[in-house]
Amino acid sequence: MNTVTNTTRATARSLDGVSLHFLIIGGGPAGYQAATYAARLGAKVTIVERDVFGGAANLWDCIPSKTMIATGGAMSFSRRLQGMGLAQAAPEVDIESLTSRVQGIQHELNDDIKQLLQSQGVTMINGTARFTGPNTAEADGPDGTRTIEFDAALVSTGSRPRIPDWCSPDGDRILTTRDCYPPKSFPESITVIGSGVTGVEFVHMFSSFGAEVALVVSRQHVLPGKDPEVAGVLEDDFIARGVKLLKGARAETIERDDETGGVVVRCDDGRVVRSSHAVLAIGSVPNTDGLGLDAAGVETDDWGYIPVNHHCVTNQRHIYAAGDVSGKLPLASVASMQGRKVAEHVMGLHTVEHRHLDYDKAASAIFTEPEIADVGLAEAEAFSSGRKIRVTKVPFATTAKAHINNDPRGFVKIISDPATGVVLGGSIVGRHAAELISVIALAVTANLKVSDIYESLLVHPALSEALAEAAE
Ligand SMILES: Cc1cc2nc3c(=O)[nH]c(=O)nc-3n(C[C@H](O)[C@H](O)[C@H](O)COP(=O)(O)OP(=O)(O)OC[C@H]3O[C@@H](n4cnc5c(N)ncnc54)[C@H](O)[C@@H]3O)c2cc1C
Prior knowledge:
- The structure is a single chain.
- The protein has about 475 residues and is an alpha/beta fold.
- It has helices spanning about 5-15, 30-40, 55-60, 60-80, 95-120, 195-210, 230-240, 295, 330-345, 380-385, 400-405, 435-445, 450-455, 465-470; strands spanning about 20-25, 45-50, 125, 130-135, 135-140, 145-150, 150-155, 160, 175, 190-195, 210-215, 245, 250-255, 265, 270-275, 275-280, 285, 320, 365, 370-375, 390-395, 410-415, 425-430.
- It has 3 domains: about 5-60 and about 100-160 and about 285-360, FAD/NAD(P)-binding domain, CATH 3.50.50.60; about 175-280, FAD/NAD(P)-binding domain; about 370-470, FAD/NAD-linked reductase, C-terminal dimerisation domain (Enolase-like, domain 1, 2-Layer Sandwich), CATH 3.30.390.
- The chain has 14 helices and 23 strands.
- Helix 4 (about 60-80) runs antiparallel to helix 5 (about 95-120) and helix 4 packs across helix 6.
- The longest helix has 25 residues, at about 95-120.
- Flavin-adenine dinucleotide binds near residues 55, 156 and 332.
- The site of flavin-adenine dinucleotide (FAD) has 34 residues, from helix 2, strand 2, helix 3, helix 4 and strand 4.
- Belongs to the class-I pyridine nucleotide-disulfide oxidoreductase family.
């Protein structure tokens, strides 16, 4: 089969109702979304997954971390109950029931995904797949090795935690983020290395459960790349909770401490931190090794990611890459949307009705306390490019609901075009920020104006009143 003509022929075949065979390697958000959607559109789909359908997102990343953060959040919220007219002793964490809660949610979601795939007639193979040629692959699994021929394929194999050469995680005291679920026990004290999104979420999680936390921050503030004002609110909260911030320091070694049984982290500026545990949160690397990409003629960049165009097509026209392996925004929400766009493209729908993915308009959230969310153009980005913007900021403390909730922290910031009023971006710090950002995300995607927000009849009393005020 010829790889270049295949896509065209396959697309035409799919549109006139004859099945195109679409192989998907990796059953995370990118893979299972592409599989179900392409199958619904008429493709014959095979998906190969070596762990669980649902992917690392359900097994290691989004779901377990957010479930534990929700429990930690409930604990820290309980500390504010007195201010709400309730007398309540602080609850204690019960690791066994927390573990079964995390696993219960994971199983439920994984079962739902399997049922969804089944209901769309997708062939599911448990195994590890690799390409053996431009249109062939093999999957090794419990039932032996299967050869698969395909017309089009999607690589959605995700990523794994980056482990630097100066540290050897042992899964006991020196941890990667994947060693934290299910929790065997809660650390008395922990040093978190890395102050990006994952790092600060781990700081929040462990400190909510009562651990003494130190955070190694390589720059001068946490969350590099985010609005410094937003990062500042989070730092204030960390400091108020007693988190030790080691700013401008890079960890150089992490070793077991024979004296205490814990760990010792040494930084490049001479500072030394001792704690019972340490966790690495310094980014991820793509799962592209051992995939036989050479056999399929698919190129990777210097870091192992697979470069793609705006349709997630690789340098091979019939092979796509989506999700973390594509080196775009490493978010489950983005991976899912890429998966859907791939399905549309492989079935030829991009010529009919198709909105290109615009990564600059992706909303994202950080599940700390206060919660943080943003979308679209950032204030600092506009200033550095010299773009004229209008910035309005309203603290939640101006709303009745924040006081009713006994939590007046945070603010809403809306960035708009001063000439047209079109909403360009925004950030929210505070309770339910991850939900509230949807309003600004919709405005950014649909090119709505600030007047569309402030003329909406919103609920009272609600935190969204701060959104309407910021839009005014
Ligand atoms: C701690 C943490 C928390 C996060 N929280 C969030 C969050 O709250 N919100 C959010 O949007 N994002 C979050 N993310 C990011 C999110 O988890 C990823 O962006 C998302 O999982 C990427 O989806 P994916 O489909 O690319 O890959 P994955 O979810 O990684 O799935 C890839 C799948 O491919 C399988 N696979 C790999 N190689 C092969 C092979 N050769 N054969 C067969 N199968 C294979 C793997 O087993 C895996 O199941 C978080 C990340 C981390 C580390």
